[in-house]
Amino acid sequence: ERTGFPEIVYGLSKTSEQLKKIVEKLVSNHNKTLVTRISKEKATDVMASVPGGDYCARSQTLVYGENEPLDEGYVLIACAGTSDLPVADEAARTCKWMGCRVKTLYDVGVAGIDRLLAHRELIQGASVVIVIAGMEGALASVVGGLVKRPVIAVPTSVGYGTNLEGLTPLLAMLNSCSSGMSVVNIDNGFGGAYQATLIMKLAVDGGHPN
Amino acid sequence: ERTGFPEIVYGLSKTSEQLKKIVEKLVSNHNKTLVTRISKEKATDVMASVPGGDYCARSQTLVYGENEPLDEGYVLIACAGTSDLPVADEAARTCKWMGCRVKTLYDVGVAGIDRLLAHRELIQGASVVIVIAGMEGALASVVGGLVKRPVIAVPTSVGYGTNLEGLTPLLAMLNSCSSGMSVVNIDNGFGGAYQATLIMKLAVDGGHPN
Amino acid sequence: ERTGFPEIVYGLSKTSEQLKKIVEKLVSNHNKTLVTRISKEKATDVMASVPGGDYCARSQTLVYGENEPLDEGYVLIACAGTSDLPVADEAARTCKWMGCRVKTLYDVGVAGIDRLLAHRELIQGASVVIVIAGMEGALASVVGGLVKRPVIAVPTSVGYGTNLEGLTPLLAMLNSCSSGMSVVNIDNGFGGAYQATLIMKLAVDGGHPN
Amino acid sequence: ERTGFPEIVYGLSKTSEQLKKIVEKLVSNHNKTLVTRISKEKATDVMASVPGGDYCARSQTLVYGENEPLDEGYVLIACAGTSDLPVADEAARTCKWMGCRVKTLYDVGVAGIDRLLAHRELIQGASVVIVIAGMEGALASVVGGLVKRPVIAVPTSVGYGTNLEGLTPLLAMLNSCSSGMSVVNIDNGFGGAYQATLIMKLAVDGGHPN
Amino acid sequence: ERTGFPEIVYGLSKTSEQLKKIVEKLVSNHNKTLVTRISKEKATDVMASVPGGDYCARSQTLVYGENEPLDEGYVLIACAGTSDLPVADEAARTCKWMGCRVKTLYDVGVAGIDRLLAHRELIQGASVVIVIAGMEGALASVVGGLVKRPVIAVPTSVGYGTNLEGLTPLLAMLNSCSSGMSVVNIDNGFGGAYQATLIMKLAVDGGHPN
Amino acid sequence: ERTGFPEIVYGLSKTSEQLKKIVEKLVSNHNKTLVTRISKEKATDVMASVPGGDYCARSQTLVYGENEPLDEGYVLIACAGTSDLPVADEAARTCKWMGCRVKTLYDVGVAGIDRLLAHRELIQGASVVIVIAGMEGALASVVGGLVKRPVIAVPTSVGYGTNLEGLTPLLAMLNSCSSGMSVVNIDNGFGGAYQATLIMKLAVDGGHPN
Amino acid sequence: ERTGFPEIVYGLSKTSEQLKKIVEKLVSNHNKTLVTRISKEKATDVMASVPGGDYCARSQTLVYGENEPLDEGYVLIACAGTSDLPVADEAARTCKWMGCRVKTLYDVGVAGIDRLLAHRELIQGASVVIVIAGMEGALASVVGGLVKRPVIAVPTSVGYGTNLEGLTPLLAMLNSCSSGMSVVNIDNGFGGAYQATLIMKLAVDGGHPN
Amino acid sequence: ERTGFPEIVYGLSKTSEQLKKIVEKLVSNHNKTLVTRISKEKATDVMASVPGGDYCARSQTLVYGENEPLDEGYVLIACAGTSDLPVADEAARTCKWMGCRVKTLYDVGVAGIDRLLAHRELIQGASVVIVIAGMEGALASVVGGLVKRPVIAVPTSVGYGTNLEGLTPLLAMLNSCSSGMSVVNIDNGFGGAYQATLIMKLAVDGGHPN
Ligand SMILES: Nc1ncnc2c1ncn2[C@@H]1O[C@H](COP(=O)(O)O)[C@@H](O)[C@H]1O
Ligand SMILES: Nc1ncnc2c1ncn2[C@@H]1O[C@H](COP(=O)(O)O)[C@@H](O)[C@H]1O
Ligand SMILES: Nc1ncnc2c1ncn2[C@@H]1O[C@H](COP(=O)(O)O)[C@@H](O)[C@H]1O
Ligand SMILES: Nc1ncnc2c1ncn2[C@@H]1O[C@H](COP(=O)(O)O)[C@@H](O)[C@H]1O
Ligand SMILES: [Mg+2]
Ligand SMILES: [Mg+2]
Ligand SMILES: [Mg+2]
Ligand SMILES: [Mg+2]
Ligand SMILES: [Mg+2]
Ligand SMILES: [Mg+2]
Ligand SMILES: [Mg+2]
Ligand SMILES: [Mg+2]
């Protein structure tokens, strides 16, 4: 509870048995929890034992309950194409569960700059933007140049060859010529969402410390 | 002016002549500017030609004027030791020039955890924390675990051998077991400060978009 | 027998047939052996043919007999979470079989520093500490700062993206700001335990050479 | 003469003496040559001995004579800022000497997308575009998305930290989400220009082979 | 349609359902499309629903319709051996569908230089050459030295150990001692073909911009 | 004093002024200190201001006072040749200052295995061995195979090309086929000595914790 | 036939059908061939169609006929343990088929230097030595130091973590402190054997060129 | 004397004083020695003290006396251009001092294949070929394909950007599609020559072991 949010469970290396126990305890204590990186099989097991869960296969997230709404502005989640959707959805589901209003812009790539710029208002209206991009990660720089608000960049492992399983967009984003951008681990939609939400929470609290 | 702040000048690959012209123009238009990565020699040249500048050799920054104060909370800049001070000062001077209240905690390392924890209040009282660390970068994870507010981590090239000129703390910070942390380029005190300030600005604006 | 301990068998690239023969010979000559990285299938085959073995699936180790107890102090094995347990168990089983007293501290991470510090006595009471950590490996630095005794750090491949299959915590541990730490190969719980035990053996022998 | 262009000299690892001899021979046989990566000192030596040369310090190129004009369309050379100018000029001087018409667009970065798009006609009017970019190299992807003609991308070592001396923009450009782009070595303005000119030459020849 | 060619579909991360919809739309609007990286299973699904497709298993490409012929010269696709054929075929099928005349030279390696040179006329008669090579990628340099026309080099992941999944031939090609070569991503036969075709298109258009 | 040894000062990034102050304080409080990575110039400055220091240029160490002797056994410091001597001396001086008895074996390389084996008794008589090796680092494996006691391996940046500034021997040592070896950072003679001394201290204390 | 040996077939990326045809042709023309990296399934197919083959599963080689004996001295193939045997056998079978006399030394590692040195005569009696080693590859340096004759080192991908799939022993071998060693690709037992045999052939020919 | 050749001295990290002593001793005992990587300054010092030396500045080698001639065939040293000459000369001087007959082919590159092939007889007449190449290292593969005799490849750090200080040609040579090639460290002309000479020595000895 250090952050004001109940613990979030990283499902990957846990068994169904372990997950059931943890989720049971968190839900009975807090009425809510979020499990990330949980397969359909394990989610089915957990939901059979702890009712009230909502599973999303594409993002591999299982959600119980929700947190207090953060009622100012919105977090925009932008990505270029179908391959980044699992990461984008992980980010979106995490933000929503944590209380953020979320808008998404899922079909924009820098190779079609006009299609991206057609959404200028949506982009510039956001309080925080999460940009999710694989390949060369250039979307982050372009979006970063458009907004005055903080951008959190999430590189993805989408691509092949010199994408180097996401290292290339990661390094590119860290070198962005747009100021006001910071970066999280490859494919870490959860991490990008968490940071974006802490920013929104601070803003809703008017900048006062915890 | 896209971000509400006048342009910041990257001094490294510019000559005294080029810098003089740019600074002159920015100061005459906005009464303020910040030049980063500017050597003492070049700064002296610029200040001879454009009066009113304030140069700091350790951080290699030259400052003219200041931006409106962001009057809520403070940004904490934490680092472990003497070697990281140039980066820490670059961050501090950038934050201040941009209007933030800044506090610093410059002599804490994870090898002496009690000395760090003695400053728990200062740390937890911050609205945003910038953690600057070379070596293995572990300070970011420990500080990140202590606060509910966003942490911006700046890896530095301080260290030798397997520090790999800062790549090791960079990668470590991106893998932090503390949530709520995002990362900027190696030695990029400016970048960490810029992101922290955008967050403070959003908070002062109550979360409303630009 | 160069080290005073009977040969330990690396099971990974050996067939059941090869393992049976080696184990048979070692057990008949020394009444004891340790096989690491042995799958359940192969262990079942070996135990069917050489009775008296004790298999542990999580650590993939098969144990016969035991060595003389090293009756001073204890080795502490510390790790942060569920994902590092296979490596931690490999270390614990190796230390025990070699004669060490072992204590474990398996649920501490630097993101929750107070939970870790609650075990200060256990940590500082150890003669040697083995720290096992994936992600960014920061636990090693914090524990290293708490103790005056040697720390052996074992990086693990737990994590994703920039964890780089354990290279990141390895490099981080080699750059630790805590002195008195040395490092073994990624996921090498056995190697960490072996080094820790040699240290305990030397201590029990009062520092005299072999 | 295999390519229809007289030999071009790589000046870096050659002495003034060696360069004088080579240039003398090429100029007396062909009335023209191009020397790249030649310092001011060496260029002065060569020009003292072989009159008629034209030296440019920023691009470190020395030019004698010129090739037949390629009278269709133009090659556009685009880069973001002052730091990339030496590479851009190397490209421009090479293209011109080889006979191309050249236009340049030297002050556009993706962080200010509107300033870039203000030059849409210039960009889309080019027959071939050479994009020169350091940092994260995103300019190549955006320009590539705007034009139907071939883009040659030249990554530069401009940047620090995770720029990795140009490897990051190189890898990013190879992963570009824009089709119709190919890449040359880091800081290789000459190589980009050479490839662009071969393309222009083929076009002027109407697509017929040599 | 930005490039004058209808959209090409990247099949890898799309489901049969998604592919059917996209192909249906493209074929009904343009009477043609190209899908790359599409498995036999998915291609069968798509062809069952949209008749008129032509699938090639080795290159994993599915083709509908064709573009206007580019009636000057030919693109030569050269590779050394059987292992590079999937990439070579992807390139050949892309070039043909886009309208190029294509010739292939599929059994030449630099280890048998005379066998390669026996095809000198075929090689030097090409307007553009696509060289596809794994292992050490030396074929590109040798072919590049033989022709006056642009060479597009496609490194492949064929090889083991220090081939580093194609990084070695990629880096080698970028360092080629032959001028007039540019490089695309590892195994990117499509990308090489696309760039070659843009060059042919420009040539057929006589060098005029779009 | 956490480790029972007064603080050791890392001299590299500190000025003469800073070093004078620190050394003055440490010497007046503890009558002893060790400064590593200190140039001759800075050492001269410090010694002029704080008398009683002993400087060694090859190892770049400055020593004041000494710690209580650890009177059991000895630490052996082994290296292959002249190039590793600065690192070996840093280790030797650190061990001695910390109280260890030290023996050295400075002219043995695995390419002359018999010369190495001629010192078998010296090697096997050590309580702890520090092996310092550049190039391919094989000395560590051979020595590790000869002794039953802990080996601390220190890779050095001696070598060129594929030595990769010490990364190659580092990685090799971490993969050693000899058990009972752990590794510290490249060129970190200090770190190897510190760990060896902690081991000796534990042994002298009979294995009892702090 | 350029080298005096009939073509050797690399089986990995070829189908049973392709292999049958190639082997048929080579055997009918030369009465002999060698296929490397061929699975049991494919070998069975080929042998059913072309009688007279001899398949070895561990080395994945299929042999037909043999070359003229090279009747001087012998090639020694040395490796440390069971895991390197597939590569060692590939080397041994290749050498034998090419006509060399082969001796093997398969159970020696540098961690047990005396066991290795017990074979000094066998080692020093060889005309050429092929050393095959994974882990840290130190065996090559020790053997290289013992012999006056050429050593060909073959690194293997045996190991885990920092072995980096064979890159670590490769780099270590290239940095060997023993002169007279050259290196081939990771796991390339064939390549090591081929080079060793060319050396034997030259020697048998008394040093005269082809 | 293990190899039948007196010790060769690596001059780089030794002082003039150290070199004088070593050379004095070797020359007085054996009448000959070779010092590599020795600067002009140090060589002048040594020659002043030990007369009879022959220094070559380009290859940084100092030679005293000579070894018995190896009177069969010749070693060919081939490289592409002026930049590789220091390494080529180091190889040539080493081979000659060790007794080999040496021929050189210093102006051939794969970009001009016909110029290379004009020397086919010289190339195919060699008993051993040392190929020295920077950039992409393709010369080794082409030469390797032309000869039946062993090729030793020496990659050089000549090039920039993705040459990665010689790693790229090193990796490329290890992946060569020509069999019968082995590789030594980057810029290691000495090492290539040493291996070539051991091969010649074996051949002159008719393949008999030492
Ligand atoms: N997808 C994710 N990627 C990275 N960290 C995560 C992810 N999901 C949860 N976490 C973090 O992992 C912690 C829980 O880890 P665990 O105790 O292993 O379940 C939470 O506090 C989160 O901060
Ligand atoms: N120290 C720094 N590190 C990275 N980026 C910087 C730094 N200082 C300034 N910048 C950025 O560089 C831009 C100005 O670049 P330039 O036009 O080359 O002066 C500014 O908009 C800042 O975003
Ligand atoms: N050569 C060295 N390499 C690595 N760490 C060192 C070295 N010398 C001293 N240290 C460590 O650096 C710490 C002091 O750092 P500082 O406070 O910056 O002087 C000491 O506690 C030592 O543990
Ligand atoms: N295991 C192997 N590793 C590397 N190269 C090989 C191997 N086996 C055969 N070769 C080489 O591959 C060539 C044949 O390749 P291919 O024509 O694809 O069968 C032969 O000339 C050999 O030089
Ligand atoms: Mg912005
Ligand atoms: Mg936190
Ligand atoms: Mg400690
Ligand atoms: Mg385009
Ligand atoms: Mg060409
Ligand atoms: Mg041992
Ligand atoms: Mg030898
Ligand atoms: Mg050959």
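The pocket of magnesium ion (ligand 9) is lined by residues D 3; E 144-145, 147-148, 178, 180 (CB under 6 Å).
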